[in-house]
Design brief:
alpha+beta, 8 helices, 16% strand, single chain, 3 domains, Helix Hairpins
């Protein structure tokens, strides 16, 4: 009986010691977590007590710490991109607005001829139109990224859409004395998409070519050999960019100095790519012998 009591007492003592050590270990873990919450560190929680039963808890805490730190890094990167983008966009908006302000001041000169006034008014109108386009692209991209853009999915004949967009830009080609070599198959090309979105894809690509391209354009729209998709190609000379630049053209806010203009935020092609992918298609670019080709492939509507 005495031995049983002694044995039980020893067991209880060992249990108390174990619980005390466990409590101290948990307190140590809590202390480590608290210190990490007040400091920027990449350290993880350590099992200083060596108790294996605490390893699942510590591994779980360290997993959460890694995820949290990754989210912080991602958030900081996005904040940095936003700040840089706002600086770029502010510059791009300020340029045409400053020019418009300057010409508005010149219009106050009473000695101007009617011809000069008309010319200055046209410049002012052009600068304000440029600013409107910049704001429109930014607003559209913001809505697209936040999934708040209205989407009216229906059967769309992209051949008709492309034809109407080309007609819309006809005068722009005329002003620059650019010729268009257009090859469009004479058949209905149905895709399941939002018509305005398809129109914006073509419009943004053509507008980008007019802003940065040099010389005549080659445009084609045809059905793939497997008849599962339709392919749009837009090519023209681009001596001011490299193959490396071509690989970044669809990145949002890509506005490298030598390929940017006062009317471009770098969002046009990013929007085109996002819209194409939303329709289940692809969008890309290639540069060969100073000829830049931008392509879009959209899946054919399933019959």
């Amino acid at each position: 009986m005495i031995f049983a009591v002694i044995g039980l007492s020893i067991a209880l003592l060992l249990l108390v010691i174990y619980l005390i050590r466990l409590k101290l270990s948990l307190r140590n873990i809590a202390s480590q977590v608290q210190e990490m919450s007040h400091e920027e560190t990449n350290q993880l929680v350590r099992n200083s007590s060596g108790q294996k039963m605490l390893n699942p808890l510590i591994n779980s805490i360290n997993g959460e710490l890694r995820d949290l730190r990754q989210k912080v890094v991602t958030a900081e990167k996005k904040n940095r991109e936003v700040r840089e983008s706002l600086a770029e966009i502010s510059h791009d908006l300020r340029t045409p607005l400053t020019a418009a302000s300057g010409y508005t001041g010149m219009l106050k000169d009473m000695d101007l001829t009617e011809e000069e006034k008309l010319r200055y008014l046209n410049v002012v109108e052009d600068r304000f139109e440029t600013s409107r386009n910049l704001v429109d692209q930014l607003f559209y991209y913001t809505r697209l990224e936040s999934d708040s853009l209205g989407w009216n999915e229906e059967e769309v004949d992209i051949r008709k859409v492309l034809t109407s967009v080309l007609a819309m830009y006809y005068m722009d080609f005329e002003k620059k004395n650019y010729e268009m070599q257009v090859q469009i198959e004479e058949k209905v090309m149905p895709v399941l998409a939002d018509q305005e979105a398809v129109k914006r894809i073509f419009s943004n690509i053509i507008s980008n070519g007019l802003s940065h391209g040099e010389g005549d354009f080659s445009i084609s729209l045809n059905q793939s050999s497997d008849e599962k998709s339709f392919r749009f190609r837009f090519s023209n000379r681009a001596t001011n960019i490299t193959e490396e630049d071509a690989s970044h053209l669809f990145e949002k806010y890509f506005t490298k100095d030598k390929v940017r203009s006062s009317s471009n935020t770098g969002l046009g092609l990013a929007i085109a790519k996002s819209l194409a992918e939303k329709m289940g298609g692809t969008c890309g670019a290639s540069l060969k012998d100073e000829i830049l080709t931008i392509f879009v492939e959209l899946p054919r509507k399933k019959m």
